[in-house]
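Hello Y.,

Per our agreement to keep a running log of every chain we model this quarter, I'm adding this entry. I've kept the format consistent with earlier entries: sequence first, then predicted structure.
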Amino acid sequence: MPFDRILIVDDQAIIRKSMADALRAKRHSVILAGTISEAERQIQRGKINVMFLDVRLPDGDGIELLQKLSNMPDRPLVIMMSGEVNIESAVECMRLGAFDFLIKPFTIEQVEGTFKKAQMLSRIMKVNRNLSNDVSKSLNLLGESPAMLKLKQLIHKVAPTEATVLVSGENGTGKELVAQDIYNLSSRADAPFIKINCAAVSETLMESEFFGHEKGAFTGALERRIGRFEMADGGTLLLDEISEIPPRLQAKLLRVLQEREFERVGGTKTVKVDVRIIATTNRNMKQAMANGDFREDLYYRLNVFPVHIVPLRERKEDIPKLAEHFLYTSCKRYNRNIPGFALETLDAMIQWPWKGNVRELQNCIERAVILSPEEDPILPEALGFIISNSVHAPAKAAAPVEVKSTESKPEPILSSLDELEKRHILHALTLTKGNRSHAAGILKISIRTLRNKLNEYNYREPKATSVPCH
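Predicted structure for the entry above:
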């Protein structure tokens, strides 16, 4: 991956030029300076990734500049250069944080070799920094079901690599959030993250959106435009709903993925890019290939590392945690005080099929927060879908099924639901300062049901604190 800015600081023009030519040939951005003051001005203008710094300069000592850089929070990797074999200076430079020390005269091969090592170290440092950051970087995905834990493991494995990822799943499952997490945890997290929704771009404009166009390439092309691939150079490009790309453009996309180069619409100059691709789809890609709607070679080029998101109806144990999260964010957004969900509401959410997946759940809870009276828990009616009369009864199969075992296995969602139910009941008692009648009213259950629940929890009334008499 090319570095954004490399600074070469040396008072000999021929050394600066030869080093710059070699690095620019690898598509790196190189800046030159002949003095300490010029180098400091370049540093102030923007982040420097790697610096080649001569020890002896006309207006000062490069080691002094290295010492200044050592106090910068986002300092560059510094490679010191010197024409003198001075062990003391080399040791001092390494003590101050220099990455390496080159003795003049050196060859271009030595420069390139040292630079590759610096580039590799920089990538490792980025990955470690991203992985060691607060977990909030990976909080896009909520849930602790086996399916979600497996998904998170896959994300952490593939994120630090350069592999192309194809994220599949139904609408509303969170494919873009998965892509965002992969980007956040990658070594390209400081580089651009460019997105394009292939389903939202017309076929006539899609090629220009991808690759850009030159001035006059077509009617209305009044100036050159940079495409999404070029914008993402050095970073990551998300091709959302990749299955919607028309067949005519699929061949061109395949070439870019293979060669990492293209021409703008109406242009003849080849543009080279270094882009990591993450694609998403909600379609059955094998069926699309069988129908002739999608090229097999393009599919296999995209499907290097497949990641599938399980629909919400197949991981219902995640619903309570998701519901609490959306309740909190919606209350904060609309400045409302809703204490939680009634027990029958939680039961209804567990049983609902959620064809729209997590997005549908989020929208239902947001609507319920707006409609529900403040200080009252959310009732099933506020969710906006019809609840059957038997919502509290165990779900029954629509047709007879073969019984393979006489042992009944508990549903995995029950422990999550029971724990959430317990928290709501105890929270209601806290709000009412132990008044069971009021708590039962808030929870929309009978006193008898509340008493039975508290007996299950081995609940004991808190003892009143006695005050000694004097």
